[in-house]
Specification:
Radius of gyration: 32 Å
InterPro entries: TRPC4AP
Biased composition (Low complexity): 331-345
GO biological process, one term: ubiquitin-dependent protein catabolic process
Number of strands: 0
Helix content: 55-70%
Number of helices: 42
Protein name: Transient receptor potential cation channel, subfamily C, member 4 associated protein a
Distance between the termini: 50 Å
Largest sheet: none
Strand content: under 5%
Structural class: mainly alpha
Region (Disordered): 328-348
Length: 774
């Protein structure tokens, strides 16, 4: 504050300081209370000029007063524009330092000019000037000068990034936010408008309703491809569900309660529907995502790209630089025919040759993100049909080697977490969004075979024929005109780069998730063999056992992938035994599994289910051979080991801590008991849980916890069609048997050998009676 109010401490100085302080205090108070001065321009001009130098206001209040006086309705705005330009030059320097230097937050830095501008009502005045044409009663709305509008928008954006609270103030004005969208129809003011809207929507408390934007369909259809790509940055805020973070609101208990309160679709879901109803919208996004760019050359490309990203905040800023460069080129060509003058100009000297490639990558990040969100929303089947029709997958396949996964070393990259919104380079962001798109596209959907080419589809058919099993219906129904072109399909290309990825690379997590999604759903032997023949199982085992990978996220993704790859597949278990061929290797594998059952429980479930199926195929010589030789199957076949898994799975979760990440532990524990019930061994397992409690000196705790978990399971899954289908498909156990088993376990008859209550002594019954009754 001292910077704003002056720092003289003489007798006369104190008076000046007190006067300055009073002015600032009164203006600040009026902003909070709404009483007193409505704007700083109401103060006498002489007083503002007298106090300007001691307070270091740099003439901003005086310029604002002149701007106010020259911007009345029906006045000549050329004078106002001149004052605006003077203000803009002072404020833009602070904004530039914010973007190019340390990128500090507004709270950590001091930006006296933008603070003074806002304090004396500059922000409100610019909003008033911009919206003035909407307030006229005339049928023909007066048109404002484009340069004047651009300067107003730029100053507002500078204030947003440099002065705390300005963005939230603008976001609270719904009329202004909706008005900004109307300015996007003008290509000359598009960039400035889009930048400001993006900043405002990022802090807006309530998500905007796209349906409320005047003529949204016409607006979007008027955009060229560059504008549409930038518009995707804005759309991403409007179609994504708010991030609830990692607090207790993230638990399934809280999520289910929230869904009951909000039975209807969310604003994000409504906005997704609004976008899908815009003619040609998805088709244009597919074209943007798959259009080719000129390849960047030079060994220093990646480093050059990384260096630029340290200060290029987003594609909109980059657009501004490109626009400046173009204008400079045009100016230079008129002033001089000497081409060297352009080459030696300061801006051109600072722009690297690879900027166009960076430009395109940053566009694609935004476009692919929007497609990802739409693909995972309630309208998934509609989106899937359109993405297939507009050949998104073949288009991405053609870009894979040249743009998405070029052969540049990534060893100097730090490991990036699994958060899709992590603050990383455009190159890394693009790869992550691409992998998320593949994951969403393949997951439980018959269109997953579009990731292959015709030759690879024929290979799947041949695998089924050799094994004497029918082809999967989805494979038979695949439209061959929509699959990948070239020698390799997208899935095969992904496997190739996956096996080359360094051990500590964060891409491993996303790659494994994308490949796993291809296998998820009803188990397909042909799909598994297709991947086994390409060495995927050996690669996964190397990563788990031999690579020294310490990332829990990456290990979890590899455990999940291994489970889907091996489930019910006797050849996979045979390959496993061939790779894990020493006691030391097997112990290292078990150590990784046991170090975190939350991460590895899906693999445990796969082994338990597979063992159960293999034990029913005793007439098959090959199966019997693998059963007798495979160390993994032998380990799980021992009852004490299955019980050990069961004890720990129930112990590491409770209803209050259940999330989408760890609810699989509950379902894996249930699978063990489902199979036990099939063999009439359920009482044996329940009694073992009771004995475990007493041996550990906490009678009732384990069984009461499990009882509460199963009560929650009923509440959660009996209202979740998709989740119940997933459970049935992944386990090959009818969901009716899941429900029946849970009902039996929760039975109230204390004489029943299959109900949990029969194994809890009366004094320890129902420790958490009211847990689910809120």
């Amino acid at each position: 504050m001292a910077t704003l109010l002056g720092s003289e401490f003489s007798s006369s100085g104190r008076k000046r300081r007190n006067c300055n302080s009073n002015i600032v205090t009164k203006l600040t108070s009026s902003k909070i209370t709404g009483k007193g001065f409505s704007r700083g321009t109401q103060l006498p001009g002489g007083l503002l000029q007298e106090r300007d130098k001691p307070a270091k206001w740099h003439g901003i209040p005086d310029l604002l007063q002149k701007l106010y006086e020259s911007s009345h309705p029906n006045s000549d705005l050329s004078y106002a524009h001149a004052y605006l330009k003077s203000l803009s030059s002072q404020l833009s320097m602070e904004a530039m330092s914010f973007v190019t230097e340390d990128r500090k937050t507004a709270q950590e830095s001091t930006f006296p000019n933008t603070y003074t501008f806002d304090l004396f009502g500059g922000v409100d005045l610019l909003v008033e000037i911009l919206m003035r044409p909407t307030l006229t009663m005339q049928k023909k709305k007066p048109k404002m000068n484009d340069e004047l509008v651009k300067d107003c928008l730029s100053i507002l954006y500078n204030c947003c990034i440099c002065t705390e609270g300005v963005t939230k103030t603008l976001a609270a004005r719904d009329d202004f936010v909706l008005f900004l969208f109307t300015l996007m129809t003008n290509k000359k003011t598009f960039l400035q408008t889009a930048t400001l809207i993006e900043d405002i929507l990022g802090v807006k408390k309530e998500m905007i309703q796209l349906e409320a934007i005047p003529n949204l369909s016409g607006l979007v259809q008027s955009f060229d491809q560059q504008q549409l790509a930038n518009f995707c940055r804005i759309l991403s805020v409007t179609i994504s569900e708010p991030d609830v973070g990692n607090d207790d609101k993230h638990t399934l208990l809280a999520k289910d309660a929230q869904q009951k309160r909000n039975a209807g679709p969310s604003r994000a879901e409504l906005n997704q529907v609004t976008l899908l109803n815009i003619p040609g919208f998805i088709e244009r996004l597919c074209k943007l995502a798959t259009r080719k760019v000129s390849e960047a050359t030079g060994a220093n490309f990646l480093q050059e790209l990384e260096d630029w990203y340290t200060w290029l905040d987003n594609a909109l800023v980059l657009d501004a630089l490109m626009q400046m460069a173009t204008e400079e080129a045009e100016q230079s060509s008129t002033e001089s025919s000497d081409e060297s003058s352009l080459a030696t100009s300061p801006l051109r000297h600072r722009l690297p040759q690879s900027m166009k490639t960076v430009h395109e990558i940053m566009y694609k990040v935004e476009v692919v993100y929007v497609l990802c969100v739409l693909l995972m929303g309630r309208q998934r089947n509609q989106v899937h049909k359109m993405l297939a029709e507009f050949r998104l997958i073949p288009g991405l396949n053609n870009l894979f080697d040249k743009l998405i996964w070029r052969k540049y070393t990534a060893s100097n990259h730090v490991v990036h977490g699994q958060n899709e919104n992590c603050d990383c380079s455009p190159e890394i962001s693009f790869k992550i969004q691409f992998l998320r798109l593949l994951q969403g596209f393949s997951d439980h959907h018959e269109n997953k075979y579009l990731l292959l080419n015709n030759q690879e589809l024929n290979e799947l058919s041949a695998i089924s024929m050799k094994a004497n099993i029918p082809e999967v219906e989805a494979l038979v129904n695949t439209d061959r005109s929509l699959v990948c072109d070239g020698k390799k399909g997208l899935l095969t290309r992904l496997l190739t780069v996956m096996k080359r990825e360094p051990p500590d690379s964060s891409f491993r997590f996303w790659q494994a998730r994308a490949v796993e999604s291809f296998l998820r759903g009803a188990t397909s032997y042909a799909d598994q063999m297709f991947l086994l023949k390409r060495g995927l199982l050996e690669h996964i085992l190397f990563c788990i056992i031999d690579s020294g990978c310490a990332s829990r996220d990456v290990l979890q993704s590899y455990f999940d992938l291994l489970g889907e790859l091996m489930k019910f597949n006797i050849d996979a278990f045979k390959r496993f035994n061939k790779y894990v061929n020493t006691p030391e290797k097997f112990q290292a594998f078990l150590t990784q599994i046991n170090s975190s059952l939350v991460d590895s429980n899906m693999l445990v479930r796969c082994i338990v289910l597979s063992l159960d199926r293999f034990e029913s195929q005793t007439e098959d010589i090959k199966v019997m051979e693998v059963l007798s030789e495979c160390c993994l199957l032998s380990y799980v076949a021992r009852v004490e080991n299955r019980l050990s898994f069961l004890f720990r799975l129930i112990s590491i979760i409770n209803v209050q801590t259940l999330t989408q990440e760890n609810v699989s532990c509950l379902n894996t524990s249930l699978v063990i008991l489902l199979l036990a019930r099939r063999k009439a061994k359920l009482p044996f397992y329940l009694n073992a849980l009771r004995e475990k409690e007493y041996n550990e000196k906490y009678p009732g705790c384990l069984l009461n916890n499990f009882h509460n978990l199963l009560r929650f399971w009923q509440l959660h899954y009996l209202n979740k069609d998709k989740d119940s289908t997933c459970l049935e498909n992944s386990s090959c156990i009818p969901f009716s048997y899941w429900k029946e088993t849970v009902s039996v376990l929760l039975g109230s008859d204390r004489t029943s050998p299959c109900s949990i209550v029969s194994y809890i002594d009366e004094p320890y019954m129902d420790l958490d009676r009211d847990l689910l009754e809120d």
